[in-house]
Amino acid sequence: MKTYQNIAEVLDDIDHLQWFGSLFTEQPIWKKKPLEAKFLYLEGDDELEDIFDEETLQPKLAHEANVTHFLDIEIFKGILKNQVDQKSDSSIDDYIAALNYYREFDTFMIVTPS
Length: 114
Hints:
The protein is an alpha+beta fold and 114 residues long. It has one domain. The chain is 44% helix and 18% strand. It has six helices and six strands, in the order E-H-E-H-E-H-E-E-H-E-H-H. It has helices spanning 7-12, 27-32, 44-48, 60-64, 73-86, 92-105; strands at residues 2-4, 22-25, 39-42, 51-53, 58-59, 68-72. The strands form two sheets. The protein has a four-stranded antiparallel beta sheet. Strand 4 (51-53) and strand 5 form a beta hairpin. Helix 5 (73-86) crosses helix 6. The longest helix has 14 residues, at 73-86.
């Protein structure tokens, strides 16, 4: 388990996040002020399979931190790679837009040239 104070910290640590891990965040804060949302990174059976709620499959650690599932790392990294492949000089705002687009439409955002 690792806690990040914001999305910038997650992005800085992206190479250390394992494909089979998951990110959890403060959803209301992410929706209003994504740069201020804290993140919890969980990986492995001990952290992800100790379930608090069988219906939502919310891990105990996430419940205790008052965060909910954001994205699995495999998907998270795929979204970021897609964004960089289309726009190599992507900003943190570009990444946030791409993440939100994927979460809303379940598909990668297509970046149009400016």
